[in-house]
Amino acid sequence: MSVCRLFILLTLTLASPGRAAGADPAVAIEPDDAGITLRVTGAGPAKRSAVELKVEAGGAVLVVRVKGLRTGRRWLEVDDPRLSRVLQHPSRRGVWTNVRARFTEPVAQAVADAADIRVESRTYVIRLPLPLDPTTAAPVPVDPVPVDPVPEDPVPDDPVPEDPVPEDPAPEDPVPEDPAPEDPAPEDPAPEPAEPPAPSVALIAPDQAAGDPALDPPAVLALHDEALREPSAFDAVWRSALAPGWGQIHNGDTARGAVYLALFGASLATGIGAGVIGQGAQDDYDGGRIDRRDDANDAYLVANVLFATAGAIWLTSVVDAALTGGSGPTTELAPSGGAP
Hints:
Radius of gyration: 42 Å
Largest sheet: 5 strands, antiparallel
Distance between the termini: 57 Å
Low-confidence stretches: 13-21, 135-142, 227-231, 327-340
Strand order of the largest sheet: 3-4-7-6-5
CATH topology of the domain at 23-135 and 202-231: Immunoglobulin-like
Structural class: alpha+beta
Mean pLDDT: 74
Shape: rod-shaped
Number of strands: 9
Strand content: 15-25%
């Protein structure tokens, strides 16, 4: 009978719809002049391979996806000119936590490819290289070149006496005066070329994004709403109805599905075995062995309890698949910058 009690306790423990892991993962946004850092802290140990990054909506949205973390749907507070709003929500593809960051200016896929992803115990640290103003380069100072002034001829204090002009001078051919050579002014040196700006992550200019239909506000909002549409739990329910645990595996919770499947199979197989033992004892009792009556009753009792346990596990698996197939009820919090 202790085995039956153990099965019942395990069944009641699994009946709670997947919220024993704790509260939603904590997401922190840490912006600075050189980029933005996202910190996602869950209940279990972090794995580097569980993080995916993708740019969507023509560069207007960057999605950070962490596998294996259950979460609700809520808006995060942001205080950075590069970010418009940030939403934390579950995924339609099983147990994922998505962080959708909408930027004020489009970003390229190279931002996601160049992200630095690290794990610190239970925390995922995602570093995005997004400088505040990557297109502005500091001007290169040019030292002024001094210009030597042109020396002037000194003027004598006493004028030179002139010869008296005769009354009828003979005409003389005028002698052209040679102009005094002037010192050429030094030419201004050619400005030194400015050094090219340091390479940075390529951003899509606003004038390029203006003509793209994928970046029009109605199209971007339509893609955003489609990504947040709640999934249907029907596929998980009919799978769990056929085989307990199949629906949980379909939702991405492989461990939970394996436990359901193992408990159901063990209960059913053990109940069948107890029924076979009880039938054998019943046959002995009908053949004249009166001492086998209690053995038959005990075996039948164990078989009934195990069959009831298998039924409870089947029902619990179906209900759990219905509850965990969608994202569940959540509370929306408006961002600090205004309504979404």
